[in-house]
Amino acid sequence: MKELVLLNHNKNDLLKLKNELEDIHKKVTLYDIEHGRDIETDPIEKPALFICRTETDSDTIVDDALKIASENGSPILFILSKPDECSYDRLASIEMAWYIKEPYTMNELKSRIKETTSSAKICEWNSQLINDPVNDILFSMGATGKILYVSPSVENITGFTQEETLDKGLKELVTEESFTFISGLVGTFCSKLKKGEPVKAPVFDVEIPHKNGSTLWVEISINPIFDNDKNFRYFTGTMHDVTERKRIEERFRVAAECINDQIYEWDMKSDHLKWFGDIEKALGYEKGELPHTLDGWADRVHPDDLPEVMKSIERYKESGDSFEAEYRVFTKNGEIRHWKEHGIPIIDEMTKEVVRTIGVCSDITEKIEAENDLKERDEMFRLIAENANDVIWVLDARGEVVYVSPSLEKLRGFTPEELNGLSMEKRFTLESAKLVRKTWNSFFEQFEPGVVPDITRILELEQPCKDGSTVWTEMHINPVLHPDGNFKFFLGVSRDISERKKNSIELEKQTKMLDTIFNLTPIPMVLVNKEGLVENINQACTDITNVSKENAVGLRTGNVFSCVNAYEGEGCGRNKECKSCIFHEIQDETFRTKKSIYKREGSTKVRLPDGSDLDLNVLVSTAYIDLYDEEAKIIFSVEDITDRKESEKANLISKMQAEEANRTKSEFLATMSHELRTPLNAIIGYSQMLQEEAFGELNPKQNKFTKHIHTSGKHLLDLINDILDLSKIEAGKMELHYEQFNVNDVMKNVYNIIIPLAEKKDIEIDFLISEDITIYADKVRFKQILYNLMSNAVKFTPDNGHVTIEATIEENDLRVSVIDNGIGMSAKEQEKLFTPFYQADSSIARKYQGTGLGLSIVKQMIQLHNGKIEVESEDGKGSNFTFTLPVKDTN
């Protein structure tokens, strides 16, 4: 530091401070802030340090002092008297400013001046620029991008003066695209600095505007400046005009894009890696995504290859020889590519060290993959030959074994060497050897260069094994010719078919057995192909049709069974009547659906030998046979069931007669019931009049007998009415009279009838109906159904019991449930519940009375309405009778 400049303002007494500074530095001068200093007559010796003493409220003095220091490109030290926190915060945010607060010791002042003068590099630049102008631009820049100092050479390069450049932000000094690039780079750099992470000073190219409107390229190198506490203060840097170099590089890049290889230049000093091809596109990245440093490139190299690549680079740096390496790299989407790199060194003549590398990277993925594929195929063929169960072999024109795969030993026990010592005749059994020799001679007798004889190339041969046994093989023979058409060798494959031979013999046995079963089956059977032609018939079919097997083959089914359609028009299967023929219909369906048919009844008309026709009832079955390697076939079986059908017809007539008799009985009962009702009505009516003493007063005994007569008469009338209803239903004479009515009204009516009986037993009756429900049904019969179920519920429920009636609409049905907590019934009793005249036991009948007809009639009336009834009950726990009726009957 050549000069300490003490800033004077308002004629402050700075004598004491000046004396202190002179004890520290040999040259201390005063600079009057208000009047300034004539730099031309009294120049400041650079590098210089400005010093200013100020108080808390002296913001104007601080601003003036900072401006003077900045204009001179020098740091400034503030001596603060009565400082506050705002003073600290403000000065701490200014890159070129330091401070010390009063009181202080001389040692503290010396230490702070020493720390501040660490920024003297700027001042040294200033002196260099004055004495020795350079073509590079020297500058200092804060962490925010503000230019704190720039050398006068900026005007020679950019056209802008030093004054026009100072205090501008980085964004104003570079193009928009370059600013985006620098912001990310400097931001990352500053972030690492704050974290205390080690970083290298970056070197990069940016595009900056010229005052004349054009742009130029400069190479920027920046270095961070720290204070004694290792805190970052600002950047210093240089800008070097590389516009011409960029033009050359652009031409080089265009040339590089014309080839598939990627050309690069690596500056080892700055660790800047410059690519002349489109490296980002080659690896699937967007422009600017790849960092242009060795570490950035190393991140793309496969981790298994990276250690050896880095060792090669170190050897290259030491030896100065050319560099070659093959390694794998990752693209952005994770794909692996194989690269081959060749680099040549650029050596510094002074230090004799490698300072730069010019190299080329070639994508050899396709070549590597092709080589790997070839290796894999060779290995695959070798593994196939050595591990295949089949024996692969090569024979020359003399019959000598050129090659035979190791599987020979597994198949026959011989090693390849042992087989080569056997003559051709000894490699096969006697009969097979004759066939091989005949085929061999035939081939060479017919062979002409370039023309392969048309002889059998697949032979089934029996060959001896080393242990004396034999094995059957299927041998595939392929002649191989030289390019000139002459015979080269036979390439063959021998496959063990011993099991197939064994299965073939077994299949032959099975076929004979099935033929025997087919012929001995007593039911007539016919084998038919897809064209509808007979291929075989069994003996039973021959016996019934008088058609021999020989004559049946090639006929149609109708011809075999003498169907009348076979004798009419165009013959079997061709007349329109054939479409309804049982044989034709079932045959077409079986082939179409590929499913067998079991015992389908049908009828056919056959022509007898005397020329007359006979109607037959038949039972026809088919079995669909899928033969896989052949076309499918079906087997017909035909049974004459005419006699059985006649028997069934007779049984049906008997059944109808019995039903008719039952109806007659029912009609008789209905008539009798009607005849009985007339005198019963008189008995009931007169007995009621007697009870009412319409003909005079009765004594107690007469009154009791009259009451018995009336009760018994009503009971008998109910029985007759039930019998009459049941008889009508069974006779099919029960007619329903449909009408639209409200279910709620009917339930109220039935309730009024039932309630006296319920009140006698203190039984509570609840109705659960969510809304007014209207249905279309027989109102009288609906009331009868509901009355029967509700009266039963009250009858079989003990005193103080409970009966619930629920009614809901579910989809298109009315659902009614009558639920009680009465005596209930067992599961066995429920099975006969709806049987006429059935009651659980005699004790119940005596206790509760009744005929056992009510529920039977209820069920049949519900069924007449196309409804259903069901019961849920448990002995001793009550019952739930539920019936459903269509809201509107579909009939």
From TrEMBL:
Residues 128-178, 248-320, 377-421 form the PAS domain. It is an enzyme of class 2 (transferase). Transmembrane segments: none annotated. It holds the Pfam family PAS_3. This is histidine kinase. Residues 202-254, 323-376, 457-509 form the PAC domain. GO terms for cellular component: plasma membrane. It comes from the Archaea. Its main location: membrane. It is found in: Membrane. The lineage of its organism: Archaea, Methanobacteriati, Methanobacteriota, Stenosarchaea group, Methanomicrobia. Keywords: ATP-binding, Kinase, Membrane, Nucleotide-binding, Phosphoprotein, Transferase, Two-component regulatory system. GO terms for biological process: regulation of DNA-templated transcription. NCBIfam families: sensory_box (TIGR00229). InterPro entries: HATPase_C_sf, HATPase_dom, His_kinase_dom, HisK_dim/P_dom, HisK_dim/P_sf, PAC, PAS, PAS-assoc_C.
